[in-house]
Amino acid sequence: MFKKDVKEGEAGSQLGTEEIIAFLGKGTEFKGVLSYEGTVRIDGNIEGEIITKGTLVVGESAVINAEITVGTLVSGGKITGNINAKGKVQLLSPATVIGTIKTPALIIEEGVKFDGKCDMLAKEEKKVTPITSEKGIKIAGGKGID
Q1: Predicted TM-score of the model (pTM)
Q2: Are 95 and 78 in contact (CB under 8 A)?
Q3: Of 74, 83, 97, 77, whose CA–CA distance to 12 is shortest?
Q4: Which of 17, 9, 28, 25 lies closest to 92, judged by CA?
């Protein structure tokens, strides 16, 4: 629906068949909290916070100063702020990111500028719960400690 040439629309071309439900075009500005479901493409300026379980596509002309919580992020624009993604973060040239990225999967294309820190989260951490008897801990050999 919003197809552009390969150079200008590269971030959008990485999505496959996902439908973009909203579009913030070049030259537009938004300040505040943006919360949505599905896939949104931003080519304008945003300041504030972005919250979604869906996908955020950031075009090359976009400038975002925000705390971002997403399912998936595909960016070719400039982002200043922390990014927390449950799925993956894909940074396409000429993207710039200044801030902390927390994600289980990070893809950075050659030519991207990243100034910050990255925490690669495990999808699910397994906890080990020790088993003890009422009188104490059993050790190898069946003897207990009281």
Answers
A1: 0.73
A2: yes
A3: 74
A4: 9
Distances in Å between the Cα of 134 and the Cα atoms of 29, 47, 48, 137 are 63, 56, 53, 8
Residue type, 69: T
Mean pLDDT by 10 residues, the chain (146 residues): 42 59 93 96 97 97 98 98 97 98 97 96 60 57 57
C-alpha to C-alpha distances, 51 to 34, 54, 55, 73, 139, nearest whole angstrom: 6, 9, 10, 11, 49
Residues 6+ apart with CB under 8 A from 140: none
Residue located via tokens 């197809």:
3
For 15, list phi and psi in degrees, rounded to 5: -85, -15
Query: Do 80 and 98 meet the contact criterion of CB atoms below 8 Å apart?
Result: yes
Q: What span, in angstroms and rounded, lies between the C-alpha atoms of 89 and 105?
A: 6
